[in-house]
């Protein structure tokens, strides 16, 4: 009898212990902070998985005017048919995020992931339900989420669930929610709203005891005028003064979640892409976070002051739930601004067909031909060739097949906290070595390099979108990088711009240092080695052919050395630096 009692006691004790431990790691709010179980401040450093469950056309360089995922899918079906299109999307989703991605994010210093969910991976669209008013639940989305939870748990990373594409779509910006404007939107259909409420309740029931889930971000970037505005950006709700339908729906979603889940933070977003909180506040839940999104504006206190005011007035934590799509300079400045104000952040996206994110998905020749066909420049590819190209693209989404942009990661994780430079990889000079010109140091503009154009600030300036790297390739700094048949080079050089290179020298001594340059006019660059000005190299007109220009007997010390290439008269191209021991 004693033995049975002891076993029962131990069983319930262990069960209670397990239950307590499953709850002690839940994030929650405490006044103006997000905190852990010990009430210690948690600064979320996160990344969004855009393109995983929900593609936007720009992520695939899709050339059509309408760039919603369902449009992309229709165009793919025209090339390879429905069955092979489903095969492509299954492979895309299986490869796009795997445990190796989450392991890498942990290694790089991220502590959270935002999952942009497409509702149609969890439930059928309203118009496809076999029984009106009922919900058919699909395992695809839940299984994908379960896998992410498992990988995040193994890495002690929080997973934030973000309803990125709602039933019917939450705004006039069609791409972000895969909205079909020929059908009722979220705001025009009570059935769509009820489905969204039911989906959040289903998610909360499934994950109510899962502490790896950091929060529920219940509606991403609502952008719909409830006051009949139809022109310009105002149709997206940026100027609405009430936003009552948005508030009402978020209150209903919160109530449905709280019916089954008292543990998780609920994240709210205002109208006008998440930033218009007129008529929405004060908060209606005591475990709630206010999110805002920030793109293409100045990184000053003024730009975020209204959110700081909300935090103070309503005693609620604030979180930069989405930002990115800019230069390394902008990234470092924005993250520094956030962290100085104790605001967590989440960047967008982790990977796409582009260079200004941590991971770049490589394209293939067949996919280039498909893009050119879609642009009207080539004949339609065969079904077999198109199928191979799409499947290769899906294979390239695996992290081991991606290009890792360490400079982007450095700008996000290190540069906000230091002005120190870092060499671009391990560069060792032996008796004869070349350094590609594009391998200048990693660090802030004006410290590791200097370029006159270094970010896109068009929202603040009211002007046009601007580039920073005019070649749109390889690195995400202000330096303009281009590619030809033999590789990358620095171009579009301007007066007073400069590049710095930090490297290790094996053998002390005198070296000939040569610079591979091409120009259609005369140019000039000053060379500084270890703070010693060696004078200028005069660049003749080479008719844009690559020529070498040399300095003789340059003393290099054993170990660390630095070379600065300072442009006095620009307009030339710069490919490589060659070191030869004399």
Automatic annotation (TrEMBL):
PROSITE patterns: CBM6
Secretion signal, residue range per the UniProt entry: 1-18
Presence of keyword Disulfide bond: no
Cellular component aspect of the GO annotation: cell surface; extracellular region
Keywords assigned: Carbohydrate metabolism, Cellulose degradation, Glycosidase, Hydrolase, Polysaccharide degradation, Signal
Domain CBM6 per the UniProt entry, residue ranges: 459-580
Origin superkingdom: Bacteria
Biological processes, Gene Ontology terms: cellulose catabolic process
Protein's UniProt keywords contain Hydrolase: yes
InterPro entries named among the record's database cross-references: CBM35, CBM6, Galactose-bd-like_sf, GH, Glyco_hydro_5, Glycosyl_hydrolase_5
Single GO MF descriptor: carbohydrate binding
Family to which this protein belongs: Belongs to the glycosyl hydrolase 5 (cellulase A) family.
Name of the molecule in the record: Glycosyl hydrolase family 5
Record organism: Christiangramia fulva
């Amino acid at each position: 009898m004693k033995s049975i009692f002891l076993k029962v006691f131990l069983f319930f004790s262990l069960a209670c212990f397990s239950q307590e431990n499953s709850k002690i790691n839940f994030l929650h709010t405490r006044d103006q902070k997000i905190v852990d179980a010990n009430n210690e401040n948690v600064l979320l450093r996160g990344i969004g998985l855009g393109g995983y469950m929900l593609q936007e056309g720009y992520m695939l360089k899709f050339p059509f005017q309408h760039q919603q995922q369902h449009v992309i899918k229709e165009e793919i079906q025209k090339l390879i048919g429905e069955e092979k299109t489903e095969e492509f999307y299954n492979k895309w989703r299986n490869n796009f995020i795997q445990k190796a991605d989450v392991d890498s994010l942990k290694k790089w210093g991220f502590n959270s992931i935002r999952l942009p969910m497409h509702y149609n991976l969890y439930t059928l669209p309203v118009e496809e339900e076999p029984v009106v008013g009922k919900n058919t639940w699909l395992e695809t989305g839940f299984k994908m989420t379960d896998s992410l939870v498992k990988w995040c748990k193994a890495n002690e990373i929080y997973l934030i669930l973000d309803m990125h594409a709602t039933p019917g779509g939450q705004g006039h910006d069609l791409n972000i929610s895969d909205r079909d404007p020929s059908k009722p939107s979220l705001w025009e259909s009570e059935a769509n709203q009820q489905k969204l409420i039911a989906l959040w309740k289903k998610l909360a029931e499934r994950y109510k005891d899962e502490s790896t889930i950091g929060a529920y971000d219940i509606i991403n970037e609502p952008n719909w005028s409830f006051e009949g505005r139809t022109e310009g950006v105002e149709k997206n709700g940026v100027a609405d003064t009430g936003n009552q339908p948005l508030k009402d729906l978020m209150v209903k979603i919160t109530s449905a979640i709280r019916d089954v889940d008292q543990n998780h933070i609920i994240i709210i977003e205002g109208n006008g892409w998440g930033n218009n909180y007129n008529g929405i506040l004060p908060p209606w839940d005591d475990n709630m976070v206010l999110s805002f999104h920030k793109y293409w504006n100045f990184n000053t206190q003024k730009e975020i002051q209204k959110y700081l005011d909300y935090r103070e007035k309503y005693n609620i934590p604030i979180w930069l739930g989405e930002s990115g799509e800019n230069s390394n300079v902008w990234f470092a400045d924005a993250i520094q601004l956030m962290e100085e104000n104790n605001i967590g952040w989440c960047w967008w996206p982790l990977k796409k067909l582009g260079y200004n994110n941590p991971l770049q998905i490589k394209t293939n020749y067949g996919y280039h031909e498909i893009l050119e066909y879609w642009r009207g420049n080539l004949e339609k590819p065969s079904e077999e060739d198109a199928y191979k190209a799409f499947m290769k693209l899906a294979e390239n989404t695996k992290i081991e097949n991606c290009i890792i942009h360490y400079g982007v990661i450095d700008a996000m994780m290190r540069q906000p906290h230091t002005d120190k430079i870092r060499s671009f990889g391990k560069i060792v000079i032996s008796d004869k070595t070349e350094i590609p010109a594009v391998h200048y140091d990693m660090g802030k503009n004006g410290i590791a390099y200097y370029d006159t154009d270094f970010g896109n600030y068009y929202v603040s300036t009211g002007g046009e979108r601007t580039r920073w790297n005019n070649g749109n390739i390889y690195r995400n700094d202000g330096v303009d990088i281009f590619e030809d048949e033999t590789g990358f080079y620095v171009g579009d050089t301007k007066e007073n711009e400069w590049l710095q290179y930090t490297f290790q020298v094996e053998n002390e001594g005198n070296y000939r240092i040569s610079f591979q340059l091409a120009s259609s006019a005369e140019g000039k660059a000053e060379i500084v080695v270890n703070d010693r000005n060696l004078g200028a190299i005069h660049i003749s007109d080479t008719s844009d052919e690559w020529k070498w220009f040399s300095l003789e007997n340059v003393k290099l010390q054993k170990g660390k050395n630095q070379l600065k290439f300072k442009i006095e008269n620009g307009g030339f191209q710069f490919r490589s630096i060659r070191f030869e021991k004399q």
